[in-house]
Write a structure and sequence with these properties.
Blueprint lengths: L15 H14 L8 H12 L3 H13 L3 E2 L2 E2 L2 H53 L9 H24 L3 H8 L22
Antiparallel strand pairs: 1-2
Length: 195
């Protein structure tokens, strides 16, 4: 195993349970709408993208001038304005949350790699030690470690083989694949384009 070049903070790792509780409390305080399924998320995003902010602002302006309705249809201009502001801020919040999630993952990986490197170095040293008389007491544990290392490497090799791309497989077998030309006909859009 190679040594990590990252600078890992020393000491006992933080208690993740406390962090989870804080994040759950934060989520509750945000009063968020219920989560969506993947299909619902795609549909909602598509509908939202097709109505630009400026259009909403113009409708709100007309509604304000006509007592809160347009062509007999009620429209809350204040709520619309607040929602546009919230959406802009929510995007920044989401980016910050993604950044935090990545930092947490990176920290966990770096800390584990540091411990793993130390443990593997000891394992390698034990391999030499068990060949001596003084090291016989460690032989059983060393052999158990050795089986674990071999099993892990075998599993990693299998994963690498299974994730090989079809192109790589064809290249290895000497097979070639000729790309087929495709012709597509542009379709007229029936939905307004987002601005």
């Amino acid at each position: 195993m190679t040594k990590s070049k990252s600078v890992v903070k020393g000491g006992t790792p933080p208690t993740t349970n406390d962090a989870v509780e804080k994040l759950v409390a934060l989520e509750s305080s945000l009063n968020l709408s219920p989560g969506m399924t993947l299909s619902e998320r795609k549909e909602q995003k598509s509908l939202s993208r097709n109505v630009p902010d400026k259009l909403i602002e113009l409708v709100a302006e007309v509604a304000t001038q006509n007592g809160g309705s347009v062509a007999g249809i009620p429209f809350d201009a204040a709520e619309a304005s607040a929602t546009l502001t919230y959406t802009s801020n929510a995007e920044k919040t989401a980016e910050a949350a993604k950044g935090l999630a990545q930092r947490v993952t990176d920290d966990a990986v770096q800390r584990r790699t540091s411990v793993a490197n130390s443990a593997f170095a000891i394992y390698r040293a034990m391999g030499r030690l068990v060949r001596t008389t003084k090291g016989q007491a460690y032989r059983q544990k060393y052999e158990e470690m050795q089986r674990l290392v071999r099993k892990t490497r075998s599993t990693a090799a299998d994963d690498t083989t299974q994730t090989a791309t079809p192109a790589a497989t064809n290249a290895a077998s000497g097979a070639t694949e000729t790309p087929q030309a495709t012709t597509t006909t542009p379709q007229a859009s029936t939905t307004p384009a987002a601005h």
